[in-house]
Design a protein that fits this description.
354 residues, alpha+beta, Diaminopimelate Epimerase, Chain A, domain 1, 2 domains, 7-stranded mixed sheet, 6-stranded mixed sheet, 10 helices, 34% helix, elongated
């Protein structure tokens, strides 16, 4: 999905109810090398009953629905927490409206143009009501941010790409004691994770009953929400790009065999192909098998070769005397080569077998 691209679902094809399809497929090779379809992943895909379009503009992704536009946001008064702060931030990244910190009225709860966040004891996505406090105590931790991300169709990807989200859900729903136990740390360690950023932003948000465009707190919230949505949607788009061309090589024989993930050079180039390939390896549950990645060198015409998850199986410093290799790190975790021939790249990887 490139800049200025629009993707719409037709009204005629929309189903009467929202449907979630869960896929969890373990990928295994039939032959070598083998290609992996980007359509087979372990993420959940949400099908929405209303037309949507995705707009990518100046690096900021906005998910906009053909629903009545949100005209205002209402969240609870008093002390503030990360979940409603971030939920509001995500909403204003697409709908730059005012935020009111007070209890909602019945009319507002019934009005889809008013997003009610973390208050109201209702979860009604069609009405843009996003409260979780009425959920059963034994339900998986789900906060108001979770519900907003679900409505926007990016919850699964955010949970996959942002490891902090699940911790935020636990902290908001189960409190510091249970969260510390879940993380395997003591309660005191939780407080050590706070910083002036957390304290100052939460206090500034709580001190005002209203937040409007142009005000410092509102603008910071919009920046945070826009950055989060952009990061998640753009990473998914780049992962889909990589998934179209990626290969996994099985090299060597028997106990000396290795598995390497490869992304060929493309035009236009895929941004941060090496980092995106690492996410694809994890998504495809190959992180226990792949020992290295090969990807286009951003500084030259050749390729970079890097140990995956710092696997000790390969030592690229062994390639220092190879004529096409112009850089190897002394610690052996990375090498750069001007070579573009696939067969020779495979030979170099075998030579780097420690």
């Amino acid at each position: 999905m490139g800049a200025g691209s629009y993707f719409r679902t037709s009204q005629e094809s929309a189903s009467p109810k929202a449907t979630t399809i869960h896929t969890r497929t373990k990928i295994r090779p039939n032959d070598k090398p083998y290609r992996i379809s980007p359509k087979v992943t372990r993420r959940s895909l949400a099908l929405f009953p209303v037309p949507m379009h995705f707009q990518f503009d100046n690096g900021i992704s906005q998910v906009q629905r053909r629903l009545p536009m949100i005209q205002s946001i209402v969240t609870h008064p008093g002390g503030s927490h990360k979940d409603e702060f971030l939920a509001c931030a995500v909403l204003i990244s697409s709908f730059p409206v005012s935020i009111f910190r007070r209890d909602p009225t019945e009319d507002e709860l019934a009005d889809p143009q008013v997003a009610v966040v973390d208050v109201g004891h209702r979860h009604e996505p069609d009405l843009n009501n996003f409260d979780h406090h009425q959920f059963p105590r034994d339900m998986d931790p789900t906060c108001s941010l979770s519900l907003v991300l679900q409505k926007m169709g990016i919850y699964e990807d955010t949970k996959e790409f942002c490891s902090w989200l699940e911790t935020a859900e636990w902290f908001d729903c189960r409190g510091p004691n249970d969260t510390a136990e879940w993380l395997g740390v003591d309660r005191e360690s939780m407080a050590k994770l706070n910083s002036p950023l957390d304290v100052t932003l939460m206090q500034a948000f709580a001190k005002q009953s209203e937040h409007h465009s142009g005000e410092p707190v509102w603008e910071v919230m919009k920046m945070i929400g826009s950055d989060l949505v952009s990061y998640v949607t753009h990473l998914r788009a780049r992962m889909d790009q990589v998934g179209q061309v990626e290969q996994v090589w099985d090299l060597g024989e028997g106990d000396q065999g290795i598995k390497v993930a490869f992304v060929p050079r493309s035009d236009p180039p895929i941004e941060d192909a090496s980092g995106v390939l690492a996410w694809r390896i994890k998504e495809l549950e190959l992180e226990e098998e792949v020992v290295a990645t090969v990807y286009p060198d951003s500084r030259g015409e050749g390729y970079g070769m890097r140990r995956f998850d710092d696997s000790p199986v390969l030592d690229f410093s062994l390639l220092a005397d190879e004529p096409e290799v112009h850089f190897t790190h002394a610690r052996g975790f990375i090498a750069k080569t001007s070579c573009t021939q696939i067969d020779r790249l495979k030979e170099l990887l075998i030579l780097a077998r420690a």
